[in-house]
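Journal club side-thread
Mid-discussion, someone asked how the predicted structure for our own chain would compare to the paper's figures. Pasting it here so we can look after the session.
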Amino acid sequence: MIRIKEELFKQCLHYVEECINTAQLAIEDARSSANDDTKSSAGDKFETGREMMQQEIDRNRKQLEEAKKMRLALEQIENHQVSEIIHSGSLVITNFGKFYISISRGQIQVDGINYFAISAVSPIGLKLMRQKIGYQFDFNGKPIVIESIF
Protein backbone atom coordinates (compact mmCIF):
# COMPACT_ATOMS: atom_id res chain seq x y z
CA MET A 1 0.00 0.00 0.00
CA ILE A 2 2.96 2.33 0.51
CA ARG A 3 3.64 2.19 -3.25
CA ILE A 4 0.01 3.10 -3.97
CA LYS A 5 0.16 5.99 -1.51
CA GLU A 6 3.37 7.21 -3.14
CA GLU A 7 1.74 7.05 -6.58
CA LEU A 8 -1.34 8.91 -5.33
CA PHE A 9 0.92 11.55 -3.78
CA LYS A 10 2.92 11.85 -7.01
CA GLN A 11 -0.23 12.34 -9.07
CA CYS A 12 -1.58 14.93 -6.63
CA LEU A 13 1.72 16.83 -6.72
CA HIS A 14 1.77 16.71 -10.52
CA TYR A 15 -1.78 18.08 -10.59
CA VAL A 16 -0.84 20.95 -8.25
CA GLU A 17 2.28 21.81 -10.25
CA GLU A 18 0.18 21.91 -13.43
CA CYS A 19 -2.31 24.25 -11.72
CA ILE A 20 0.51 26.53 -10.60
CA ASN A 21 2.13 26.61 -14.04
CA THR A 22 -1.18 27.22 -15.80
CA ALA A 23 -2.10 30.09 -13.48
CA GLN A 24 1.36 31.69 -13.81
CA LEU A 25 1.22 31.48 -17.62
CA ALA A 26 -2.28 32.96 -17.68
CA ILE A 27 -1.15 35.86 -15.47
CA GLU A 28 1.84 36.51 -17.73
CA ASP A 29 -0.35 36.36 -20.86
CA ALA A 30 -2.92 38.75 -19.39
CA ARG A 31 -0.18 41.18 -18.32
CA SER A 32 1.39 41.01 -21.76
CA SER A 33 -1.98 41.62 -23.44
CA ALA A 34 -2.69 44.56 -21.14
CA ASN A 35 0.74 46.08 -21.85
CA ASP A 36 0.49 45.50 -25.60
CA ASP A 37 -2.91 47.14 -25.79
CA THR A 38 -2.39 50.54 -27.40
CA LYS A 39 -4.71 53.37 -26.66
CA SER A 40 -6.98 54.01 -29.60
CA SER A 41 -9.21 56.95 -30.28
CA ALA A 42 -11.95 55.05 -28.45
CA GLY A 43 -10.71 55.64 -24.89
CA ASP A 44 -13.55 53.75 -23.24
CA LYS A 45 -12.76 50.66 -25.28
CA PHE A 46 -9.12 50.81 -24.13
CA GLU A 47 -10.11 51.19 -20.47
CA THR A 48 -12.65 48.37 -20.70
CA GLY A 49 -10.02 46.07 -22.22
CA ARG A 50 -7.50 46.91 -19.50
CA GLU A 51 -10.12 46.32 -16.79
CA MET A 52 -10.99 42.95 -18.29
CA MET A 53 -7.29 42.01 -18.32
CA GLN A 54 -6.96 43.10 -14.68
CA GLN A 55 -9.94 40.94 -13.74
CA GLU A 56 -8.32 38.02 -15.55
CA ILE A 57 -5.05 38.61 -13.66
CA ASP A 58 -6.92 38.77 -10.33
CA ARG A 59 -8.84 35.56 -11.07
CA ASN A 60 -5.64 33.73 -11.98
CA ARG A 61 -3.85 35.07 -8.90
CA LYS A 62 -6.58 33.52 -6.75
CA GLN A 63 -6.16 30.20 -8.57
CA LEU A 64 -2.40 30.44 -8.09
CA GLU A 65 -2.79 31.06 -4.35
CA GLU A 66 -5.17 28.09 -4.03
CA ALA A 67 -2.71 25.85 -5.88
CA LYS A 68 0.12 27.01 -3.61
CA LYS A 69 -2.03 26.19 -0.56
CA MET A 70 -2.60 22.70 -1.99
CA ARG A 71 1.15 22.27 -2.54
CA LEU A 72 1.78 23.32 1.07
CA ALA A 73 -0.80 20.77 2.28
CA LEU A 74 0.97 18.07 0.25
CA GLU A 75 4.37 19.05 1.63
CA GLN A 76 3.08 18.35 5.14
CA ILE A 77 2.03 14.78 4.33
CA GLU A 78 4.16 11.93 5.62
CA ASN A 79 3.22 8.99 3.38
CA HIS A 80 5.28 6.43 5.26
CA GLN A 81 3.52 7.12 8.54
CA VAL A 82 0.87 4.47 9.21
CA SER A 83 -1.51 4.99 12.09
CA GLU A 84 -4.65 3.43 13.50
CA ILE A 85 -6.20 6.91 13.37
CA ILE A 86 -6.94 8.66 10.08
CA HIS A 87 -4.78 11.74 9.37
CA SER A 88 -3.51 13.66 6.34
CA GLY A 89 -1.73 11.15 4.14
CA SER A 90 -3.91 8.21 5.18
CA LEU A 91 -5.33 5.87 2.59
CA VAL A 92 -8.78 4.91 3.87
CA ILE A 93 -10.70 1.95 2.52
CA THR A 94 -14.45 2.04 3.15
CA ASN A 95 -17.43 0.08 1.87
CA PHE A 96 -18.19 3.20 -0.20
CA GLY A 97 -14.80 3.82 -1.79
CA LYS A 98 -11.07 4.33 -1.33
CA PHE A 99 -9.98 7.77 -0.10
CA TYR A 100 -6.53 9.35 -0.01
CA ILE A 101 -6.64 12.19 2.54
CA SER A 102 -4.57 14.93 0.89
CA ILE A 103 -6.01 17.59 -1.42
CA SER A 104 -9.28 17.94 -3.31
CA ARG A 105 -8.03 16.35 -6.52
CA GLY A 106 -10.89 13.97 -7.22
CA GLN A 107 -10.66 10.54 -8.80
CA ILE A 108 -7.24 9.03 -9.48
CA GLN A 109 -6.65 5.62 -10.98
CA VAL A 110 -3.73 3.46 -9.85
CA ASP A 111 -3.29 -0.06 -11.21
CA GLY A 112 -6.84 0.04 -12.59
CA ILE A 113 -8.37 0.86 -9.19
CA ASN A 114 -10.16 4.14 -8.50
CA TYR A 115 -9.16 6.24 -5.50
CA PHE A 116 -10.46 9.64 -4.48
CA ALA A 117 -7.99 12.28 -3.33
CA ILE A 118 -9.93 14.41 -0.88
CA SER A 119 -9.10 17.26 1.44
CA ALA A 120 -9.27 16.75 5.18
CA VAL A 121 -11.72 19.67 5.30
CA SER A 122 -14.05 18.35 2.61
CA PRO A 123 -17.42 17.11 3.89
CA ILE A 124 -16.41 13.44 3.80
CA GLY A 125 -12.86 14.27 4.89
CA LEU A 126 -14.22 15.90 8.05
CA LYS A 127 -16.22 12.74 8.80
CA LEU A 128 -13.17 10.51 8.29
CA MET A 129 -10.48 12.50 10.09
CA ARG A 130 -9.33 11.15 13.46
CA GLN A 131 -11.48 8.00 13.15
CA LYS A 132 -10.50 4.33 13.42
CA ILE A 133 -11.28 1.08 11.63
CA GLY A 134 -14.90 0.06 12.24
CA TYR A 135 -16.20 3.62 12.61
CA GLN A 136 -19.60 4.02 10.94
CA PHE A 137 -21.39 7.14 9.78
CA ASP A 138 -23.97 8.27 7.26
CA PHE A 139 -22.93 10.37 4.30
CA ASN A 140 -25.60 11.69 1.96
CA GLY A 141 -27.97 9.07 3.30
CA LYS A 142 -25.56 6.18 2.73
CA PRO A 143 -24.03 4.14 5.57
CA ILE A 144 -20.22 4.26 5.43
CA VAL A 145 -17.94 1.88 7.34
CA ILE A 146 -14.16 2.33 7.63
CA GLU A 147 -12.68 -1.06 6.72
CA SER A 148 -8.95 -0.33 6.78
CA ILE A 149 -6.41 2.48 7.11
CA PHE A 150 -2.95 2.64 5.55
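Post-session note: The first helix runs from residue 2 to 36.
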